[in-house]
Design the sequence.
């Protein structure tokens, strides 16, 4: 197995790409099934404490790490948190920031938008879910000499990777929550991340609680999100 190394300054070395082509019938069936299964995905805030095979989560992260990225620099780090004390510290810090947000920092318009979702400053999912995946974006690369090298399209690259992660977790039978407390500097401190990394999201994941409830929402139809040109 080849090991990744930074590509800065390496020559262009193309390699053949010859994937097997799926038949139109099979492609239609796969696409329809994927659309149906992803249509069942919901953001969950109530998690069961039931154990989840770690390999399922690791495979989902491996899927996320196949995402396209600017100049193929793969500017992401996934921190898998299972330690109860670390999760408790993350929850404590997150709830402090959320309390400030819900009591004045968000503003009336934002609070009005959140009201139908039933959210508040309490974040029990951060300690209830068996896994926290804390995603960091690498704003730049640090080489062995400590010199920094710019990464490109970092937000876009990490956003795509997180979308693929949520998809992989759902298709593997797990529930997840995209949690973005603001500001998130405390995550770097709690997890001891280097100066080139900035927290992007906290994703609790596991099985939904037996009594889990979700908002009664309606997604936009295909006609509402697609424009033909």
Sequence:
């Amino acid at each position: 197995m080849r090991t990744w190394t930074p590509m800065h300054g390496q020559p262009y070395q193309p390699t053949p790409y010859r994937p097997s082509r799926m038949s139109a019938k099979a492609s239609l069936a796969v696409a329809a099934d994927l659309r149906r299964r992803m249509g069942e995905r919901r953001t969950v805030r109530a998690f069961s404490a039931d154990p989840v095979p770690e390999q399922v989560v690791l495979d989902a992260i491996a899927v996320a790490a196949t995402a396209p990225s600017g100049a193929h620099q793969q500017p992401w780090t996934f921190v898998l948190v299972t330690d109860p004390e670390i999760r408790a510290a993350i929850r404590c810090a997150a709830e402090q920031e959320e309390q400030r947000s819900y009591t004045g920092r968000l503003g009336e318009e934002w609070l009005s938008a959140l009201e139908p979702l039933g959210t508040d400053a309490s974040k029990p999912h951060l300690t209830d879910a068996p896994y926290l995946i804390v995603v960091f974006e690498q704003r730049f690369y640090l080489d062995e000499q400590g010199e920094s090298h710019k990464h490109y399209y970092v937000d876009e690259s990490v956003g795509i990777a997180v979308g693929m992660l949520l998809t992989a977790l759902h298709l593997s039978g797990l529930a997840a929550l995209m949690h973005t407390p603001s500001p998130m500097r405390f995550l770097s401190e709690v997890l001891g991340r280097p100066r080139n990394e900035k927290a992007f999201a906290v994703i609790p994941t596991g099985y939904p609680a037996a009594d889990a409830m979700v908002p009664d929402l309606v997604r936009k139809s295909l006609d509402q999100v697609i424009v033909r040109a």
In short: The helical segments are 24-39, 54-64, 84-105, 108-114, 125-128, 154-171, 185-191, 222-225. The first strand starts at residue 76 and ends at 81. The longest helix spans residues 84-105.
